[in-house]
Design brief:
By secondary structure, this protein is of the alpha/beta class. The chain has two domains: 120 residues, no CATH class; 146 residues, Rossmann fold (3-Layer(aba) Sandwich), CATH 3.40.50. The chain has eight helices and ten strands. α3 crosses α8 and α7 crosses α8.
Length: 284
């Protein structure tokens, strides 16, 4: 029996206990596809009392594959950790848009076992993460991480209210001087912001996640070496999640960083999405 649309973008084969991605999300972005996957996994567990033994998703994340490339991108990056047991007492429902909510600590902690089971880095991706940490000398987690999304974020969800980079800079500066932390990591698709952080904080940017020059409303997808870029980007998001302080926009990459962290301690989440656009203007 096929449970159609167990959560947005995924069906569930109840006989074989397999989660299946559908064509409706085949061109979705990286972490948006995986956020929907995590939502579907919690739905399966909530309704059927089991967790999927496999995930079939050969037909998604097509923007990261060349024509006729049959790579399973999920398994290219992650593995299912069968050593993590999720029992009937751990039921929690995650919706397909929870990445656009305030990241509640209790919910993040309850989602953590599901995340760790299904988004454990496979050996190849873990090797990339370890290599980046060595290359950039960032094995010490006593640092500040900043994730700032520019490019097309302002058109997300029909028009996503957000601030510019200055509040991120001011918050970083405050933590930098208050906590006496000298190491700052910056993750962004805005080159000017990356350069400014380098000048002001002597920050580190993982160059392997650079996507090149893109327009202000373009999807931030690399044009070359896409699968190699994916491993570097996923590794960087996990690295940011391990920093003592995490300053992040509200969205999929920030959400995944917090999920890997397993809690919201020292997480500073931009919350402008809660505000009506009229609150930013004064009408005389």
């Amino acid at each position: 029996m096929l449970h159609k649309d167990i959560s947005f973008g995924y069906d569930y084969d109840t006989i074989n206990n397999v989660l299946i991605s559908t064509d409706i999300i085949k061109n979705y972005g990286l972490f948006s596809s995986f956020t929907l996957m995590l939502s579907s996994i919690t739905q399966v567990h909530y309704h059927y009392g089991v967790t999927p033994k496999d995930i079939i998703c050969d037909n998604f994340l097509l923007k990261f594959k060349e024509p006729n490339d049959e790579t399973n991108i999920y398994k290219f990056l992650f593995k299912i950790d069968d050593s993590i047991v999720i029992d009937d007492t751990m039921k929690i429902l995650m919706g397909p848009n929870d990445h656009h909510l305030i990241y509640d600590n209790q919910k993040i902690q309850k989602l953590s076992p599901f995340f760790k089971k299904y988004f454990s880095l496979n050996n190849e991706t873990l090797d990339v993460k370890n290599s980046l940490e060595t290359k950039y000398n960032i094995k010490d987690n006593n640092r500040i991480s900043v994730i700032y999304r520019g490019s097309d974020k302002w058109i997300d969800m029909g028009g996503f209210t957000q601030v510019g980079p200055n509040p991120y800079i001011q918050l970083t500066d405050e933590i930098f001087h208050t906590d006496k932390l000298m190491n700052v990591l910056i993750q962004s698709d805005e080159k000017r912001l990356i350069n400014f952080y380098s000048y002001k904080f002597k920050s580190t940017f993982i160059r392997e996640t650079d996507i090149g020059d893109i327009g202000h409303n373009e999807d931030p997808t690399p044009k070359n070496n896409k699968k190699e870029w994916l491993r570097n980007y996923v590794s960087s998001i996990f690295i940011h999640g391990e920093s003592k302080h995490l300053i992040t926009y509200t969205g999929n990459s920030g959400f995944f960083s917090v999920l890997h962290r397993g809690n919201t301690y020292n997480v500073y989440q931009e919350n402008t999405f809660l505000k009506n656009y009229k609150e930013f203007f004064n009408k005389n």
